[in-house]
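Need tokens for this chain, all 126 residues.
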Amino acid sequence: MYVKLIATLLFLVILIGPFFNKTYTYSGEEYPWTAELSVTQTYYGFETQEFVLTYIGENMNRVGDIDYSLKSVYSFGGAYYQLDENGTITHSVDNMTIIGKISEDTNIIVTVGWEDEQVKFNLQRK
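Here are the structure tokens for all 126 residues:
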């Protein structure tokens, strides 16, 4: 009897867990860049972040290597990235959030460096 009850409860948790996912979207701009970060947190404690950085300037061919970082609850970024044919860089991160999760009021700072230039701007929740 207890085994059936536990199995049924476990099944229900697995079945309805995805309905409790949270998704936050943040965006910001500092010429010549726009950025968007989409964060999905699952009921099971995982967090997926997809970051899209887009060049909106005049001459995409002279941008060269791009370094960027995102700073919030934790940080990620990269160096020596190249823009794709649409002028974007996409970076995804999947992790188990033990230390901290991004929330709806998290301060997120983007820093982008290219050539001899650098911009820094905040992302705001949409």
